[in-house]
Amino acid sequence: MTSHAERRTPHSTYRLQVSPDFTLYDAARVLPYLHDLGVDWAYLSPLLASEPGSTHGYDVVAFDHVDPERGGAEGLDAFSAEARRLGMGVLVDIVPNHVGVATPAEDPWWWDVLRLGRESEHATAFDVDWAAGDGRILIPVVGDDDEGAIRIDGDVVRYHDQRFPMAPDTTTLEEQHYELVSWRAADEELNYRRFFAVNTLAAVRVEDPEVFAETHVEIKRWFDEGLVDGLRVDHPDGLRDPKRYLDDLAALTGDAYVLVEKILEPGEELPRDWATSGTTGYDALALVDRVLTDPAGEAPLTALEDRLRGAPVDWERMVHDNKRAVADGILHSEVLRITREVERVLEHRIESADDDAVADAVGELLACFPVYRSYLPEGRDHLAQAFARAREERPDLAATYDVLEPVLHDEWSQPARRFQQTSGMVMAKGVEDCSFYRWSRLTSLNEVGGDPSIFAIRVDDFHEAMAARQRDWPDAMVTLSTHDTKRGEDVRARITVLAEEPGHWERALDELLRLAPVPDPGFGSLLWQAVLGAWTPEHLPDLRDRLHGYAEKAMREAGDRTTWTEPDEAYESAVHAAVDALFDSDEVRAVLADLAARIEEPGRSNALAAKLVAITMPGVPDVYQGSELWETSLVDPDNRRPVDFDHRAAVLAGEATDDAVDKLHVTCTALTLRRERPELFTGYAPVTATGAAAGHVVAFDRGGAITVATRLPVGLAAAGGWRDTRLDLPPGRWHDVLTGVDTDGHLADLLATHPVALLVRED
Q1: Mean pLDDT across 627-631
Q2: Roughly what angle, to the nearest 10 degrees, separates helices 72-85 and 24-37?
Q3: Closest CA to 268 of 373, 364, 365
């Protein structure tokens, strides 16, 4: 095992999506290219056995072996050996919160629990409220009026192509430890905890020491045998006690490098006593995007959005109402479970509260919760804020809040623990997966971990945040694109230009909506921003299909005009017709092409600025697979498409050309400097500028490496360029490693080739 003294920390990581189509053997073959790119550690998506054909691996079905479809144990051995040969570390994504149960026979634990019920040795591994189902697990798989398709076939129960086990010595459906019920029952009656509202992902109780040990047996082997150096923990907010889980993980791995996929709301801090090096970087992404956004665009883009929506958008009200709809809808079964646990506590205290009132109050508190969750006793102030706002929203429930308040503040009570596990689910479904699709003011801001109501930040605020990051979380991850981002980094970089071009955007959008009308012009704005962001010629052959896929997901996630469960065919057809018009109508394409040409250069500038800032700022930069060239993916599954690594290796070697060669050069140069000269990245100090265009640069000194990046490039060009503006450089002779040019800080010369520079002292 690795001792704390020997613990490795990456200088950078590169995320690879391992799948049946891109196995660990394929990943191993890519490692020499990644090493040449300057990457320090490879960062792998989940590897444990998952549902057959799973493209992502988050639906783990067994904890004791690497997925054979992904290369199995031998594949991990081969990958790790090649990483070691190159001096690279290995980081792996793990999924402690839930398992895949879509195919019960694939998950031996779930199969055993369905077969034996509470007598199964694995019954305590799952978070099931047996009493609520009269001793049975309710499985919501039956289609409308389709109960007749359930039949007994030998020792299994069949429903179409799904199979479920028969309990020993039984002959009827009524004797089973589960009941197949309508899919519509999930919202209200489900009695096992899930991942969010996904019925095919059942939660596991890693807070139980035996369950923890059994679910981490293969992960322990990786560290015992030196195959893996660090872990990324998926969705820790779903766990009963994230702090204790991370302590257990540190003990298991010898205090290895661990990151948590944790969403922090603006101003929220990660608990300092967690055994982690920090988050996976959505908080950093939000800051990078906003320091490159023109605050002057806020008023005109807000006015445009309000006009398209027919009324001013109140973001806070929208978030509250959408979270409340989630608590009353797809996650109401979780609300009812908290309610049952509250009733058990109150019964014990010989107090009484009306069930419906308790459920109503719990739903309101979840809607009012200001962050993803609390970790009592930490975060008690967030719970207090939720109660205060809930009392304002629903004064009629005052007496019920009086009863609930002490129960939910008691960190040892079951309802308080359950409430903490649930609030993050409601936030994710109500905000990221709904509200983000209903507000299209500037959609580059509608990103995981960001608050779209915060439009831009000042350079001084960015510096302040970076200094705090260097002080408190120097080894947390920095990311720009992930498998969960709603829009790839370069899609956002292009959309960000609209903050500088609100007038041109409004005129173009009005014309697009006139030529290709959609029933909801506000959604039309969201759609056309996605089109503009993804519009690059090399993706044209598949872009039509990709945009149709995006349009379908976006309008159904928005859920206000059509939904996944009850699609409005007329509405959806109109939206799809607008997508087709882009490819079939010369008029429509001409409008978009004109706008795309206008934002092309500033979009490139923003993209390079974001990339260099992200790779060199405090933290461990992660490069999402393929994003060393243009990353114009939209929401998943679009962002998990295969990557052409042979092409990237050829471009890096100078044997092929690509429109994004400058981005590859910036990425490679910065990653290599971080890996080869880590001593240059140990501090943080702002570097100021003087002159007419001083507001168009963000620059900082990491302790010997100085990053220089252009911001607001449209305004810079309109003002006549850099002119006399110069950086106030520290003493010494400075040299740009991107161009090989020496500089005295005069920006017109320094940034003549690229909109960014990376300086080191010549000596």
Answers
A1: 97
A2: 20
A3: 373
> Angle, nearest 10°, between helix axes 355-368 and 398-409?
70
Task: Round to whole Å and give the CA distance between 444 and 162.
Answer: 41
Q: Strand runs (DSSP E) across 20-101, as ranges?
A: 41-44, 89-94, 98-100
User: What whole-number distance in Å separates Cα of residue 286 and Cα of residue 292?
Assistant: 10
pLDDT on residue 354: 84
Q: How far apart are CA 640 and CA 642, in angstroms?
A: 6
* Average pLDDT of the chain, as a whole number: 96
Q: Which amino acid is at 50?
A: S
Placement of tokens 């007329």 in the chain: 570
Amino acid letter for position 38: G
Residue 488: per-residue pLDDT: 97
Measured from the Cβ of residue 653, the count of other Cβ atoms closer than 10 Å reads 10
Q: Which two tokens stand for residue 275?
A: 């055994």
pLDDT digits (tens, 9 = 90+) for 723-738: 999 999 999 999 999 9
Spatial strand order of the sheet with 742-743 comes to 685-686, 697-701, 705-710, 756-761, 734-736, 742-743
Cα end-to-end distance, the chain, whole Å = 41
Question: Given a cut of 50, is residue 4 above it in pLDDT?
Answer: no
Please state, in angstroms and rounded to a whole number, the distance separating the CA atoms of residues 323 and 71. 41
pLDDT at 323: 98
Alpha-helical regions (H) of 62-215: 72-85, 108-116, 186-189, 209-215
Give the separation between CA 683 and CA 18, rounded to whole angstroms.
Answer: 35
Residue 1 pLDDT > 60: no
Calpha distance 302→502 (Å, rounded): 10
Q: How many CB atoms lie within 10 A of CB 452?
A: 21
